[in-house]
Design brief:
The chain is of the alpha+beta class. It folds into three domains: about 55 residues, no CATH class; about 170 residues, Phosphorylase Kinase, domain 1 (2-Layer Sandwich), CATH 3.30.200.20; about 200 residues, Transferase(Phosphotransferase) domain 1 (Transferase(Phosphotransferase), domain 1, Orthogonal Bundle), CATH 1.10.510.10. It is about 35% helix and about 15% strand. α10 runs antiparallel to α12 and α15 packs antiparallel against α16. The chain is globular and about 60 Å long. The relative contact order is 0.08. Keywords: ATP-binding, Cell membrane, Kinase, Membrane, Nucleotide-binding, Serine/threonine-protein kinase, Transferase. This is non-specific serine/threonine protein kinase. It comes from Handroanthus impetiginosus.
């Protein structure tokens, strides 16, 4: 069926792809969506002849259509409509993998995967080590899971396997059996995110997670193992973090759970800071845009890893000082200049980290409407207490029962004030934050015995 002459976005896609490329793309799609690309050479020629040269990036066209579709009627945004908005040029010159367990894109031509006006070009970034233990891969290296496999791993997405949920959808705990060759009964626990099919937010975040976490490898970033893209659902599969989120331990533990000791809090802060510093200096400059306690996950040893890259953006390029974007994030953590102007920089993440520093000191949430009116916004309330030891003690987490070095607590409070500075340029970089925290954690500063590390 011919493309409607009024649908310029789809015409632009048709013009940019040759018949051979259409066939290649169709082969990579789920069966139910292949008929969307059944366009003959004659129809392509007719559609292309009526379309003027498209000068704006395809990513902008896609995002505009996605936003408009969501505004009209979110409930009518079906999976088929969303998949039509996938950046098809990302699949150019790619070969269909022989096995369905992994995806290896061709390196013979630039590969662009666009998400919220973000473009990652595999041809311009070589595989290299960044920030010591981090790595930026030229292309995503992810396993493709069958939907039936994930369905079995979660016992048909049973309610008793639910770990949590949010704007993206629901997160389940799953058990993946070892592939052939493993011992009988052996396997691993994973976390599985399922797209909310009635919202457009989930689809955009699904793409962002694949684009970013599929290429980033660092000890302080949660590991994305793979994804499922089927006729029925879109899912993401992550490593399982045994101790859940920092938010749960800091705010929802109650008397049944021991409060996080001071040295563990410092360990978590250092790990999270290293993760953000890696993102900012990874060669492509990524801004997380939604850094908060619920997006800091903890493994069995309370090793911190940053999660949820659905709102992440590429940082400014070509000498620009900032990225102009739609204001989105979490109130209480978002930098004031970003909220006011939509101007996003790496220093916006630094501000968010400053908020987390204050939460770790006080044990209180960034925003809590159950507190008295003057105290609902934590930063605005606590700031005057941070500069001096005698006033800082008044707002320190009472569950610590004074078991923390006063000098170290004051140094972290001063670091928080620097991160929360009103002038973004005067805030420290995340690398400077890491160095400061490591210095505070040193035996010389806190007066404890050096930690013993076992290999």
């Amino acid at each position: 069926m011919p493309l409607p002459p009024t649908d310029k976005t789809l015409q632009g896609k048709a013009k940019s792809l040759s018949p051979n490329e259409i066939t290649s793309v169709a082969a990579a799609l789920p069966p139910m969506d292949r008929n969307m690309l059944s366009v003959s050479t004659r129809q392509l020629t007719m559609a292309s002849s009526n379309v003027p040269n498209v000068t704006s990036p395809l990513g902008k066209q896609i995002n505009s259509e996605m936003i408009n579709a969501g505004k009209k009627d979110v409930r009518k945004t079906t999976m088929r409509k969303l998949l039509r908005l996938w950046p098809w040029d990302a699949l150019r010159n790619t070969t269909k993998p022989a096995k369905k367990e992994s995806v290896n894109f061709s390196k013979s031509a630039p590969i662009s995967r666009r998400t919220s006006n973000m473009t990652l070009r595999a041809s311009t970034v070589s595989k290299k080590s960044i920030a010591g233990s981090g790595e930026l891969l030229p292309t995503p290296n992810l396993r493709i899971f069958h939907f039936s496999e994930l369905k079995a791993a979660t016992r048909n997405f049973s309610n008793d396997t639910v770990l949590g949920g949010g704007g993206f959808g629901t997160v389940y705990r799953g058990w993946l059996k070892e592939e052939s060759g493993g011992k009988q009964g052996s396997g691993s626990v994973v976390a599985i995110k399922m797209l909310n099919r009635e919202g457009i937010q989930g689809f955009a975040e699904w793409k962002a997670e694949v684009n970013f976490l599929g290429r980033l490898s660092h000890p302080n970033l949660v590991k994305l193992l793979g994804y499922s893209w089927s006729d029925i659902e879109l899912l993401l599969v992550y490593e399982f973090m045994q101790n859940g989120s920092l938010e749960n331990h800091l705010f929802y533990g109650g008397s049944a759970i021991q409060p996080i000791p001071w040295d563990i809090r410092l360990k978590i802060l250092i790990g999270a800071a290293r993760g953000l510093a890696f993102l900012h200096t990874s060669g492509i400059g990524i801004i997380h845009r939604d850094f908060k306690t619920s997006n800091i996950l903890l493994d069995g040893s309370y090793h911190a890893k940053i999660s949820d890259f659905g709102l992440a953006k590429l940082g400014p390029t070509d000498g620009n000082s900032h990225v102009s974007t739609q204001v989105i994030g979490t109130y209480g953590y978002a930098a004031p200049e970003y909220v006011a102007t939509g101007h996003l920089t790496a220093k916006s993440d630094v501000y968010s980290f400053g908020v987390v520093l204050v939460e770790m000191l006080t044990g209180l949430r960034a925003l809590d409407k159950t507190r008295p009116a003057r105290q609902q916004n934590l930063v605005g309330w606590v700031k005057p207490y941070l500069p001096k030891t005698n006033t800082l003690k008044e707002v320190m987490d009472s569950r610590l029962e004074g078991r923390y070095p006063n000098k170290c607590a004051l140094q972290i409070a001063q670091l928080a004030l620097n991160c929360l500075g009103e002038i973004p340029k005067k805030r420290p970089s995340m690398q400077e934050v890491v160095e400061t925290l490591e210095r505070i954690d040193s035996p010389v500063e806190n007066g404890r015995q050096p930690r013993v590390h076992f290999s």
